[in-house]
Amino acid sequence: MTRLNLVLLVAIVLSALYLVHNQYESRRLFMALDKAQAEARKIELENDRLQVEKRAQATPSRIERLARTQLQMRNATPSITQYVQYGGNAQVDGAGGKP
Amino acid sequence: MSRSVLYTSSPLLASKTPVWRSKFIVAVVALGFLGLAARAAYIQVVANAFFQRQGEVRFARTLELPASRGRILDRNGLILASSVPAPSLWAIPEDVDRDPVKLRELARLIEMPLAELNKKLEDEDKSFVWIKRQVDEPVARKVAELGIKGIYQRKEYKRQYPEGESAAHVVGFTNVEDQGQEGIELAFNKDLGGKPGSRRVIKDRLGRVVEDVGEQIPPMDGRDIELSIDSKVQFFAYQRLREAVIANKAKAGSVVVIDSSTGEVLALANYPSYQPDKRQNLSGEQLRNRALTDTFEPGSTMKPITVGMALEAGRITPQTIIDTTPGRLTITGSTITDTHNYGVLTVEGVIQKSSNVGATKIAQRMSPHEMWDTYSALGFGQKPQISFPGAVSGRVRPYKSWRPIEQATMSYGYGLSASLFQMVRSYTAFAHDGEIIPATILKNDTRASGVKVFSPQTATAVRKMLQMAAGPGGTGMKAQTVGYSVGGKSGTAHKQVGKGYASNKYRSWFTGMAPIDKPRIIVGVMVDEPSAGQYYGGTVAAPVFSEVVQQTLRMMGVQPDLSVKPQVMAQEVEESF
Q: What part of B 401-460 touches A (C-beta under 8 Å)?
């Protein structure tokens, strides 16, 4: 009887220690998860910010200015545009062809 | 000296202890236990909730989960407005570490004169002072690196508008609290806004979150709003309008481009405009979305509508002869005049030459009731069904109160008022086979169906007249553009000043469509008070129309329906060598 009690005592102490350890571990992992999530959100926001910045670098006004001043480009008009029909039975040399 | 007594022989042992004493001790100890048990029961059963709460207050926290505001996109998914983190800097003046080197560096980073910064930190009685709200993230990071004691950051978001002033009136802006104030930002504030969520957590001694407790309410991010605007068309329209307004020394101008098949607004621009993210010293002039909020007498751009309704009622045909000699007509004491005596014209000629007398004579074949019905069906005198703040209804008086002279002047666009937007939308009736279609600022790719106002034959006939008006011998020749057939009507309206009309103040209009056989777009241009010599709609507004049509159709990938003169190409090629 006494021996059984002793065994049970040891078992319960071990179990209690294990519980404490588990609780500690779970909190530690949770903290890590939380930190990672915060980081993810921060990166997401950074992504948004960079998207806007990228867009700001590609606004029509900027493109037009650079095209005119740096690349000496000018507006396309129908008189210097060749219109190509696609679909139907358009014949394209070389590339494509019938399957 | 000492008189020690052995314990075993202590006389006290021999004395008889009264029984009540031991009983008393037992009772006291029992009472103690009873007290403990009662207290335990009280804490755990009776007042459990209170103690639970008190415990939680000491380690549990509710964190707000911010929802990000939705973006505003154009029809191709390009960003017109988006929120980016922009921390605000604040300080507790008393605590600020006054290291002159660091403060100078801070002032440089936030682009604020050092004197101003010092002034903000001067008042030591204050426990809170904003240093600068919504600075850019990289700047905020550098400020944090400086590590000045007593200066803190608060997480905030700010809207960025990459398109700048060209789309300012459409997109609008938000205030510092992220609430929409103008344009789409205001109209769709609820959808864009989203709902912040919250979570309850347990924090440890160091303030780190260690556990979630209870229910989490996830944040609902704001919805992205996809507009019908094409940012390239928008930019181009704005740019051309601005050039025209400046070149003609005008006060202001507006341009509206509508897709005539879907009713989508491809561009809506006004000048003067503003930078939505730099709004210091903003004036009402810049802020006004004139195309929607200002109504004017549309002048001659109304004439095609007059002709359309008479054609529809069968009172005239395109070839009906209208005698406009001698270029003047007197109705109940008031005289209507043309700029020249055009003599005998067909109905087509009336539109082409823009004869006021001709339009009046056509209107006289209609009853006021019929005219009013058509005006209403075309949306005049009603608020446009468009989700936009501040759209106005314009004014058409009830037909019962029209005097004959008023019926006459309305036929050529005086005595009633409309916004440029209403005017452009009414022309969808000609472009969309006689149906007036609802205009939308949101993306919608399906062909719109509207209310029938004219028959397809009438619409085709009026389109032909519009083409003549923009062709050789018409008032709007400058509306022509390379490669595409256009049709449209110019208008030059005297501005109303006080009770009468100013003789030297005009408003130039041009409203038209292209390609004329199967219209894809309707473009309206309005320039307010051009004062550099030219003031006719055909010379001031029509060139803007021409360029906007050219670029818009090209961007939409519409193939030219006119053969292009090759010498244009040859000349241009030579030039570039």
A: none
Q: How far is A50 from chain B (nearest CA, A)?
A: 9
Q: Letter for the amino acid at B57?
A: V
| HEC-encoded secondary structure of B172-229 | CCECCCCCECCHHHHHCHHHHHCECEEEEEEECCCCCEEEEEEEEECCECCCCEEECC
Q: Determine contact, residues B153/B88, Cβ cutoff 8 Å.
A: yes
pLDDT in tens, B217-250: 888 889 999 999 999 999 999 999 999 999 999 9
Tell me the count of A-B CB pairs closer than 8 A.
81
Provide ipTM, 2 decimals: 0.70
Prediction pTM value: 0.80
Average pLDDT, chain B: 87
Tokens of B130: 């904003």
Confidence class of residue B568 from pLDDT cuts 50, 70 and 90? very low
**Chain A residues whose beta carbon lies within 8 Å of the beta carbon of residue B556:** none
Q: What is the pLDDT of residues B487-497, one digit of tens each?
A: 999 988 888 77
Residues of B in contact with A30 (CB under 8 A): 209-212
B83 touches chain A (CB under 8 A): yes
The residues facing B530 across adjacent strands are none
Task: Write out chain A residues lying below 8 Å of B565, CB-based.
Answer: 79
Which string of b and e fits A29-56 if b means at least 16 CB within 10 Å? ebeeebeeeeeeeeeebeebbebbeebe
